[in-house]
Amino acid sequence: MRYLALYGCLALLGLTSGYAPPLPGAQEPSGVPPAPVWRDTGVTLPHDYSNICRDSAHPDVFLTAEPALGTVAYNWRTGRRTVLNARPLIACGPAGFLFAADARRGWRFSLDDPQGQPIDRVPDADLIATDGSAQIYASADGPDTAPTELWASSDAGRTWELGPPLSAPVALNTARLSPRDARVLYLGFWIYPVFATPPPGYAPDGVYYGISTDGGQSVTLGTMVHEPLSAAGPSIRLRPALERFGSIWSVLKITGDGGGETADYDYSISTDGLHTFHDVGASYGTLSSGRTVDLVPTPAGLVRLTVQGTNTPDNRQMQTILDLARSPDSGQTWQSLTAPIPMSTTAPLTEQSIPIRLLGTREVPAILVFQQGPHLYQSQDNGDHWQALPDSSIGGDLSLTTYEPVTLLDTQSGGRVFALDLPVAHAPFVAPVPPSEAPASHYFPATGHTLERALAGYWQAHGGLAQLGYPLTEAFHQVSATDGKIYLTQYLERAVLERHPENSSPYDILPSLLGVAAYHERYGAAGAPNQQPNSDNPRYFAETGHTLGGRFRAYWDAHGGLAQQGYPISDEFTEVNTLNGQPYRVQYFQRAVFEAHPENQPPFDVLLSQLGTVRAQQLGQGAP
Question: How far, in Å, CA of 606 to CA of 615, rounded?
């Protein structure tokens, strides 16, 4: 159970997978892409780095802090190693920003600006947005040398705002962000025992919980449940449980000690705003025996792998019993699943000293990976069916990129990094998810998807359902085919929306350049035949040599113009729609295709072509 104890603690890591011959009983999907193959990246990480993270804007890049050099970037696609500056990295932030500090101040820099600029403070590593925004937070000690201040920045550290400070003897013990909305914080407060008299209603030396939905400006406290805590006692952490696919009020609490020869953790979930918690599992054990629990959220519910190991009396063999289950209601009830390996085995003790883990990702829904030592299996349907993947190394550290396309990385004992590019089928992206219970969510039963909260304002302001259509996927991080950077992306029927935190509002939400891609794919360098400039109130664009006029110009002017639709890249012509086979008068723009629908009354006589639907159908099938 050595590796069970060391590696099997809560694995809320991300992981997806590729196709290989399915296990007995699994369905072989049509159009199966080639099986993935491990490749040597040419990158060897040093043994003495102190921090490591992945760039949030540039794919395929590790960032490390190395004592003799500072911050170093490693590209596992090219094998290139680059020293950015002499300041050791502290954290990777949103929009590709990196953070470090010297003796006097903090620094913000990036791969594009290695030297960077000084900033007032450096964010906490656990308080950095993953929702596509530039929101970060930093905790700071107050006059009593306890963490009583929480600073917020909506522009990745350029400016900061202090939230309401806590008053002694209340200090901040734990804080985590919602992955779906970085304005939502899960907070734990410590009544530290140096003060003999706690505030009214508080017990001394305890931790209490609260949720902030406005970036820390106000906090809704949970019930005052006393949980003793001391500097040498167990740690308490809060993490979203099913929030990515449901309510922000579904919060996982982890209580326990890790390190040395034992790793003891209790896991419980609150679904009522941190007022009450119910148990969902416990890990415990020594280097030779114990129990581990992995919890991974999926669109179908919370999936739990429990691994119980017990030595035989002669200490020569160990029996390992697995329990794999899924809960649709945040751990209230559980439904059994079939694991890709036998649920009970007995073998010599040395053969059992291998990691057994369950990994998943919030970025690519429904995907799970099961690890048994070097053997890997993947599920693309929330754990219902499994397929084998190529074996990894023995004793390597597996990690996963958090964007699509997804890469599984194996950092071996000597620091050498190997990569497995994992093609993912179309189905996991478009598979319906349960309705969200989150406040102000926009769930559409017609497609079974929730419009991302950060994108809802743009959707409503630009025609809503009539102009942009239903959401066809959940939001996820994807590498853009336009500039090769990572953006929070959601596919709609008539557009693919990207969140650009490097831009100020209203240009922080933009449609991707679907028009350019679709035009080139369909018509090539020669362009579409029989184009005709519209002579009704025309506007000529010398940048592309095309003219915009008539109802298309009126729509273009009323719906964001150049910033939102881009330049015209064709004149008007008649095109047969690939989805319904009907001919329409169209004009292509960088970010959209306008269709004339004279059968509709204004303003619906001009609609965007369903480029998002076409792209969603290609998603996960090798299309850019």
Answer: 21
